[in-house]
Amino acid sequence: MQQLIDDMLALSRITRDEIRRVDVNLSALAVLVVSVLNNTVLSG
């Protein structure tokens, strides 16, 4: 229960910050996700 409270407090702090737009390379992100998933499956 304490973890839930801590996470809710952290979320409330984050949502008070200004939202900024940034460019994201989705192709590079997808490659990274696939790589991490492959490593997790292969080692697990």
Q: What sequence of helices (H) and strands (E) makes up the elements?
A: HH
The unreliable regions are none
Helix proportion range = over 70%
Question: How does the overall form come out from the CA principal axes?
Answer: flat
In DSSP terms, counting alpha (H) and pi (I) runs of 4 or more, how many helices?
Answer: 2
**Largest sheet, strands/sense/barrel:** none
Mean pLDDT: 89
Give me the secondary-structure category.
mainly alpha
Number of strands: 0
Question: What amount of the residues lies in strands?
Answer: under 5%
Rounded to an integer, what's the Rg over CA atoms?
Answer: 16 Å
Distance between the termini: 29 Å
Task: Give the key terms.
about 45 residues, mainly alpha
Architecture overview:
The protein is an all-alpha fold and 44 residues long. Helix content is 75%, strand content 0%. It has helices at 2-16, 26-43. The mean pLDDT is 89.
How would you sum up this structure in a few lines?
This protein is mainly α.
Topology:
Layout: H1 2-16, H2 26-43
